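Morning F.,

Quick status update on the modeling queue. The single chain you submitted on Monday has been processed. Sequence for confirmation:
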Amino acid sequence: MHWTFSLKQSTILGNGKYNLAMFHLEQSLQLALKYVLFQLKGSFEKTHDIITLLDEVIELTRNEKWKKIRNDEASTLEVIRESYITSRYFPFYVDRLVVERAFNITKVILNELGLVE
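Structure tokens below.
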């Protein structure tokens, strides 16, 4: 299953709703990782923590490329992870550059998982 994942197509970013864009990035990454875990082992941990989910995928697959992405992009992944709670329960502002970086790493991970072009 493949989807096209394009920042240019995002009307959310065009409207300056960066917190909502971050929430959508987190949701896409979280659900994709849960999908992959379900494919690998038939279940997944009941968590919203994308780093925990990604670590489990890495552990199950022993994929060194994903491990490198996880380590190199730890701070961006942390921002994406935190956007789940903050966008739902607290008013917050995130800069467009942060969203663009989060978009890029999300796209890389989804591409490596074989879910987007």
